[in-house]
Structure formats: structure tokens, C-alpha cells
Amino acid sequence: MVRSYLLLGFLTALCQPAHGLVFRDKLKQVVGGEALYLLHDVDDATSVRFGNEQKPGTKGWKFDTEGFNDNEAVITPLDSDKTLICEEGSKCRLDLEGTKHPYVITRVSKRPIFTFQDMFSNLYVSRTPDLYLELTEEPSDSIYFELEKLELDEATAESSGRDSWKDL
Fold first, then answer.
1. DSSP letter string over 8-44?
2. Closest to 47 in 3D by CA, of 100, 98, 102, 92
3. pLDDT averaged per 10 residues in sequence order, the chain, 168 residues
4. Overall domain count for the chain
5. Which of 18, 39, 82, 115 has the smallest number of CB atoms closer than 10 Å to its CB?
6. What are the alphabetically sorted keywords of the record (predicted)?
7. Would you say the pTM of this structure is higher than 0.90?
């Protein structure tokens, strides 16, 4: 009997990721026929909005599941420890303190189309008409994000974890 419990505990430990998974992607939506990417640090150090600017280092995002289920992740810009924070009634922003605020990430089609749902409020992250992000309870086209794999020159030297959610 004791051996069964030890074996069960050992197998359970093996099934849990030791360090979590890390994915690196660009977030894209097509708006009015134009592909726009979710950018960070464009207006100021906390800004998050869609655009097509070619400013280096503003398109990459990291999804870190460490300490969470594999479908839950903290979202950060690829090159910083700031975290995406979305609160009901205001635009999403980057938290300079790096508060770990997880989102449920759900794949909704065979293409790499995903939704992000706030774990605390169960509201969806959504694009606003002025191309920023906010939380909403109403499902619409603006809650669907296409994840696009980063090219080698867009990614940093950091290489642990998976390259992209798209690969799943």
C-alpha cells in the first residue's frame, strides 16, 4: 500500500513541469483589411496598442506558464519584466513592477487563433475601436488574436521553452 502511494507521488511529480513553459510570439489582428500587431512601449513605457510601426523590439511577447497550468500564462514584452495588466473599466497597460497577472489562453481554431481571458474577472481581453486593449464580457471579433511566430532576428538570445503557441 505504501509503495502505491510512493509510486503515485513519483508519477505525479514527473507529470508537472519543473519550470513552466515559455512561448514567444507576435499578436496580430486584421483590422479593416490591414494586419496590425500588438505593440508595447510605443506611446510611453506602459502603453499597449495595435499598430504597424516598424520600431525594433516592440512586437515580441512572451507567455510564461511558470507556476500556472499550461493554458494559463503571464504575458510580458519579450525584452522586459513588465507584465500586461488589464482592469475592468480602463485600458490595458504594462505594469512596471512586473506583477504576475495570469490570463487563460484558449485556442479557438486550427489556425493559431486564441482568446485571452482574465483569470480574476473572467472577462476577455479585447481590442478597442482606437486600437488599445480592454476587458470585455461581450464576445466579438476583437477578442480573437492570431499568434505569429517570431523570426530569428526578432527574438532575443533567450532560448528556453517553446518558440510559439502556434507549434502546439
1. HHHHHHHHS-SS--EEEEEEEEEETTEEEEEEESSSS
2. 92
3. 42 48 93 95 94 87 94 95 96 97 95 95 97 95 94 52 53
4. 1
5. 18
6. Signal
7. no
